[in-house]
Amino acid sequence: MRRLTALFIVALACFGHAQESVSGGRRLAAHPFVQPPVIDGELSDEAWKDAPEAHTFIDKVTNQPVKEQTRTKVGVTDEGIYLAFICLDSKPETILATSTREDQQFGVEDHVAVLLDPMNRRSNNTTSIFNVNAAGVKSARIAGGRAGKREWRGEWLAAAKRTDQGWQAEIFIPWSMMQTPGEGKHTVLFNLARVQARDQIVSFWSPLGVQELEENQGYLDGTPLPKNTVKPQLQMLGYVSPDYDEDRAKEFEVRAGLDLRIKPTDTMTAVASFNPDFQNIESAVAGIGFTRSERFIGETRPFFTEGAGYFRMSNGFSIGNLFYTQRIRDFDQGVKYFGDLDKKNQIGFLSTIEDGNQGDAVAVFRHNFKPRSFSIGYATHRSHPGTRSTLMGVSGQHYGSNFGLEYDFANSETNGSPGTAASFGVGYSVPNFFAIAKGIAIQPTFTVPLGLIGFNNRRGGYLYLEYGRELRSGPIRRILADFYSENFEKFDRSHFQKSTSGGGTIVFRNDMSVRLGTFADRFESEESGGVGVWLGFNESHPYNQVYVGTQQDHRDGDPSTYYSLSGSYRLAKGLDLAASFASQRFRGLTEQTRVTLGYEIDAEQSVAARWVSTAGKDNWYVSYRKSGGRGLEYFLIVGDPSAQSQRNRVALKLVWAK
To answer: Looking at the whole model, is its pTM more than 0.70?
Structure first.
């Protein structure tokens, strides 16, 4: 059965590879504005009449011009870039724009995107993406990561308007939000994209293909960039938070902290944080599905999200996550320094201290050879009472047109005990198909207190195959098939783990999805296996969808069952409800329920509530916020967003920036 599955996926890959591709790399000459337009969504300013137009958007899947075309006027000034989108739609009544809050992921609702990198580095990590939906709501991903306060993040403008022929948008993006190479005329990485919700079609002005290859991005030639777009001035972000907590020995306290940020050059950033406020930040909730290793929990704390892209050391599908920020639960003082030394070299340095005797440090250097070819050198150090650990290593990947190599090599020393880990893989990537075979060896003594390593004391390898394809006609919209097989032994040559899994997903044009999966596993002496099925309804509507699934297993001779139900529903404009329930029965019963209710009063004000019940422990909180703009922000919180169980707590938090 395993061989048949693998052969089936390879056959599908060959079928997908036969599709003819269209190269990207389109160019547009920068057009200076003498008098820039007003950003109001009207497109009636005289400035647009002589601006050059980027047109003929290409379907990401078919590499052919899309039926519902997009035209974009582009102009620049020393301050930034201006764009006017005209999005034609033969059925304007079907335009979907559901997001109402800035910097949320839009998914498949109608929106346009501007992809920019003034440094022209052609790396996914260094390209900033600015999105605007058909309601004029903005969402940005700044290259390298950026904290959320507007004075630090920067401010860009957008406005949108519905028309009889579709919708249109105007955008202004200041160069100061991105790293720039300095004064003069430069070639800027530049591309435009549009997502049309009705048919779920993604199109690009400079076509990237199904693989979205960075080397196919377009160019904005002769772009006049100013000198010192970001002056090296000190920025401050402070907070004060009085709170009352009946469950604490000292019931009333006032906490305060300060963050400092400075850009000594256009491409480098330094951040210092004193007494950061992690207590009032909503933490991610870990699930209850069966796992033999520690669960990964995403990061939401601003100190760690600022410049996060510069601290990536390796992908998690080899040795593991070598810097897992959740290991640093709190600190009194922290500093970061990160950015681009030049177009090919990047650095990141981080250091934190808590209670005067607990220190952590991370250093990363990355050299980019080509868009999909780079090497990384890194080091981490922890000095805590009873723990002294150092990690050093190198990693990288080098992909040509189809084939590529991936590697990791790391040495650790914890409390005088050295350890080594290494991996080497060969990958193959063509449109619709990806495959990788990787060998991994992690010694029993390899330990990384600042990382998340699933298991040490293992050596062996794995094979992963994936085929995905979007269809433009018929009842099926998208199909995905995957296959995974691994075989590891311990260093004493005893068995560690051997497993095989596979599955397939079908997304229908009626917005329903079905996934079937199966696995067989022998972990040390335990035999397990099972099947699962998951159904999704209204998959493209993030505020009105339902997912239900179950997995029926046997683990070490005992039955194991898992059920999950989740959904979201927009009760009224700005009022959204999300809920989920999960039940895991394996040698006992564990259940988890989550309910979240949020109301967006306006662009800067909202009320939110969350209740989580896990294995009999309940926690809820209610909050009011006024944030997202310039000036003073304030939050009122009843409960503790990051606690595991309920706390009788009320906190007020004031945040300001300069």
So the answer is: yes
